[in-house]
Specification:
single chain; 270 residues; mainly alpha; Serine Threonine Protein Phosphatase 5, Tetratricopeptide repeat; 2 domains; 13 helices
């Protein structure tokens, strides 16, 4: 059953109900667009074909139609497009609305369903929006709501990005009392799923140690090595963090880190 925290999303979803003939930015469906397909399957097929053919207006029309009929992937794709300004004018509020509709409709979906990763990501994106708010909108900064969104996706769906985001809240004391132990717990879950940012932050925490987390330099360096190799090109801070730790580490710590790394990789292959 939906918890009260998740059910509250429905209130926001109701505020942002859409008229089928309009896009979120208030524009009508392109005048030269074909008649809407009968099924969402046909709409998604039309979207893919039109996109491949370079017919952007037709592709967008088909994607919007499928989204209005409740197709999860179409809603998620449109949300990501609005969030990034990819093929449509950037509009964070529109993205928030689509993510909200996904969360409203699919919070209780089985984590084993193929679409579960899109649902989990919708919760993560909602958490991101609540963390920063959306200027000139009804979506204000709300740390409690952000934590609720991350926590639901992290716990119910086991989503690695949600687990990392939740860990950062506990590590930084944002909206919650700072709790390094709790942060490390979530970082470990996320890092073991290959989330490079979680691997980097976990590695840094273990390498440095502290009152709540005993120093484990070699194990921390192992996680930093993994993070460096898995990091997206834009996350230069991960490489910098690894380099700083590697310079500080002793020869014994570096050698032991390589032993830990080999064991971890072997465990992933087995």
């Amino acid at each position: 059953m939906l918890t009260s925290r998740v059910a509250r999303i429905s209130c926001i979803g109701a505020l942002f109900a859409l008229a089928p003939a309009f896009a979120f930015d208030g524009t009508k469906t392109p005048a030269n667009a074909p008649a809407p397909p009968v099924t969402t399957r046909e709409a998604m097929a039309s979207w893919a074909q039109s996109l491949k053919a370079g017919e952007k207006d037709k592709a967008l029309s088909s994607l919007q139609y499928a989204a209005e009929q409740g197709h999860t992937l179409a809603q998620w794709k449109l949300a990501r497009m609005y969030a990034a300004g990819d093929g449509v004018p950037r509009n964070d509020l529109n993205a928030f609305r689509y993510f909200s509709r996904i969360a409203d409709a699919h919070a209780d979906d089985s984590p084993d369903l193929p679409q579960a990763r899109f649902v989990a990501n919708a919760f993560v994106q909602l958490g991101n929006y609540y963390l920063k708010g959306i200027p000139n909108s009804q979506v204000n900064v709300d740390f409690d709501r952000a934590r609720e969104m991350y926590s639901y996706a992290a716990s119910y769906f086991g989503d690695a990005d949600a687990q990392y985001s939740l860990a950062r809240l506990y590590l930084d004391g944002v909206g919650v009392e700072r709790d390094a132990r709790q942060a490390v717990r979530w970082l470990i879950l996320s890092a073991n799923k290959g989330q490079p940012r979680a691997q980097a932050v976990l590695g840094n925490v273990l390498f440095k140690g502290g009152d709540a987390v005993p120093r484990q330099a070699a194990r921390g360096l192992m996680w930093l090595m993994l993070a460096r190799d898995n990091a997206p090109s834009g996350d230069k801070w991960i490489a910098d963090m690894h380099e700083a730790a590697f310079k500080q580490a002793s020869d014994d710590e570096r050698q032991l880190a390589l032993v830990y790394l080999e064991r971890w990789l072997k465990g992933r292959r087995d």
